[in-house]
Structures are given as C-alpha cells and as structure tokens.
Amino acid sequence: MKKYIWILIFLIMVFTGFNLVSANGGPHGDYSATTDACAGCHRTHTAVGPQLLIANSSYGLCMSCHGSSAAGANTNVEDGIYLASRDDTVANENHGAANTPDGSPLLGGGFVNYRGQAVTSIHNVNGDADDLQAWGNDVARGLTA
Q1: 60: domain range?
Q2: Taking phi first (over 0 means left), then psi (-120 to 50 degrees means alpha), and beta for anything else, what does residue 27 get?
Q3: Which of 72, 99, 104, 75 is nearest to 87 (CA)?
Q4: How many domains, the chain?
Q5: Would you say the C-alpha torsion 82, 141, 137, 112 has a positive or negative sign?
Q6: Residues in Cβ contact with 6 at an 8 Å cutoff, skipping those fewer than 6 apart
C-alpha cells in the first residue's frame, strides 16, 4: 500500500511540476475569470488544432501573429523583420523599446535565413567572414566576425 502512495505522490509531482516553455514566459496569466482574451488563440467550436487552438501546430500558432502575412504582432520572425515600433513618437525617430528602427532586421535573423548556424551570437547565416556580430554583451554595434 505504501508503495502505491509513493507512486501516486511521484506522479502528482511529475504532472504538476513541469510546464510548457514559451519564448517570453507565455501568454497565460493575470487574466480575470471572465476575460475574452483566450479567443486570440483558442476557439471552442472552430478550433483546428489540439487544446482548442486556432492552428494545427505550435509553429502555425506562432506564425498566425508573427508570420509574413500576419498582422498580429510587431515582429515578423519568419522573415526576420521588426515591422513597427511599440513606441511610435516623432521625438525618437520611430525607434522601438530597444532603439530598433521600424523595418529593421531582427537581431537573431528570421526563420527563412536560418540554416542551422548560430545566428543569435553572430549574424552568420551563409558563412561569410564579414557578417556582423550580434551587438550587446560587450560587443559594439557594427563589429564584424
């Protein structure tokens, strides 16, 4: 009997201790019980994916806002473009929260450019020696690899 109790405790710990990982902590949390914000990703009657999602896969769900033809986010991660600033004021020349001009490339590149190389530490998607290093962490902007 004790053996089954320990197995039950272990299973409870396993299934309640692990969560899915999202890029920025995920979209869930801090919602009221009567919010309609869930409908941005979930549909009760028209869902095509698991967990009542509006897309067939996690990738499809992300691309529904962050893809080339999507209009739901400022970042087009499919093509690697920062579409529009979250801080559009004339005084700062349309620079976003990280001083990124509208229409500029994302620091990590886009999915269409990714060819299995580490594009987040060096913007080197084609192997050229003159590709720019990703700035930050004591690397100045404009340095080449």
Answers
A1: 41-68
A2: alpha
A3: 99
A4: 1
A5: positive
A6: none
Q: What is the C-alpha to C-alpha distance for residues 115 and 127, in angstroms, rounded to an integer?
A: 10
Q: What does the pLDDT read at residue 96?
A: 47
- 94, pLDDT greater than 60: no
Q: Is residue 143 part of a domain?
A: no
For all residues of the chain together, what is the average pLDDT? 69
Task: Compute CA distances 47 → 20, 27, 36, 38, 71, whole Å.
Answer: 20, 18, 16, 12, 20
Strand partners for 139: 136
- Express each pLDDT in 31-63 by its tens digit: 788 888 888 888 989 999 988 889 998 788 888
53 inside domain? yes
The dihedral sign for the CA sequence 113, 140, 104, 40:
positive
**CA–CA distance from 61 to each of 64, 72, 78, 116, 138 (Å)?**
5, 11, 12, 22, 35
Can you read off the two tokens belonging to residue 92? 């700062």
